[in-house]
Amino acid sequence: MKDFYEVLGLEKQATKEEIKGAYFAAARKFPFDRYEEEFMDIRYAYEVLSNHKAKKEYDSIICLSKEIKENYDKARSLIEEGDLNAAIKVLEEILKDNPTLLLIRGLLAESYLKNNNSGKAIKIFEELTKEESENAAFLGYIANSYHVRGWQKKAIKAYEEALALDSDNISLWIGLCDAHTKDENYDEAKKVIEKAIEIQKEISFIATLYFRLIMLEISFGMNSLISDITDKIVVVAQNNSEIKEDIAWILCDISRYFMQLGGAEEAERLNNAAIEILPQDENVLDTKKEIENFNKYADLFGKLSDDEEIRQEIGVLVGLEVLPDSVLDLDEDGKDAMAYYNEYQILSQYDDFKASIQSLKKGYPEFYELIRDFFDKAANDGERRKMLKGYEKHSDRFFELINGSPNFFEGEEGESASDEVSTVDLNNDNVVPFIREEPKIGRNDPCTCGSGKKYKKCCGK
Prior knowledge:
Blueprint: H1 4-8, H2 16-29, H3 36-49, H4 52-64, H5 66-81, H6 84-97, H7 102-114, H8 118-131, H9 136-149, H10 152-165, H11 170-182, H12 186-199, H13 203-219, H14 226-238, H15 244-260, H16 264-277, H17 282-306, H18 312-322, H19 325-328, H20 332-348, H21 350-363, H22 365-370, H23 372-379, H24 381-393, H25 395-404, H26 406-409
Helix pairs in contact: 2-3, 5-6, 6-7, 7-8, 8-9, 9-10, 9-11, 10-11, 11-12, 12-13, 13-14, 14-15, 14-16, 15-16, 15-17, 16-17, 17-18, 18-20, 20-24, 20-25
């Protein structure tokens, strides 16, 4: 595991200005919106090394006490692996003999918070902020603890105190915005971001703040305001070649998110901005194709989904052909498994599907043509028997994919069909995959609460 000097690419004799410069440089290399985990390491290293007392203590740990250093590194590794209970035990053991160590107490409090024990976390952070009232990082951590606990007024006050000490820490601005957002105060949340943009010197942080502003507008239904922000982001990207690709790719991510919400116009606008920045980029052009495909078929597919004459299995096959990957939220194996399962249902009960296939052909000829080859073979008795044998031969592989993925059978309340059906039975006519009426939020998509964090790091924990 890298020490904090290695994370920022610094020598141990680095000055405060050199530490800040290294923080900005590392943030440009690993921008928050694209490399969240790497950025958190950068942020933590900066917060420790930029505070004189915390830096001095860290230096003593890594230079003087081998046992404490090893246990400290062990705890950090356990936290990265998600074994919070084990990490907490290690940190508590260190503090038995060294109860005053600031870094260990702070890391223990962070571990408590991640382990859903905000009470213990708040107690430690309140002690630390009393002892170290000039430590912006500790004020930021207590603010985040209040935010997680739901005490937004306290969180806002603590974030403001932290920013008075360190306005360069982008995480503090984002935290303050999040607290106002959770408090449903759109105007104040927007003012925070606009103020941060005004005073921020690091260009990659300015881009991050503009993206946060976009997510704010989305969460509060102000989609009409996105164009102006997007234009400003394009200017930032065009004037800073080092972060052009990151900005373009993040614009693509947000445009895909808009597609999930049915916002085709906004998705296209954001992708056009990405094209303006990187006109030949493969990812950007792939996103453009997804949006064009979505615009071409979205309304018609919505009509098909509501058509009672079209069996659900047929609708799934059409969806796999016309919906973009960002809406399906399935990888290639997942799409193969879904196609396999629904095709098998049609082949094994073909007579029951004849009328629905004819309804598709008559009412939705564009969709019928997309899977015509399969239907032609299914209509031939010999071909159908041959296909059934082939499907049964490879069933084990697809069973594993279907039964192992909650994405295939997840209900609206997060329940899995596997709660009712423990295994997929090819002979069970009643097993039908759930078709989502609302867009599924992917683990890496922006959280719908408006915080701007990824779903997996916010409400999807």
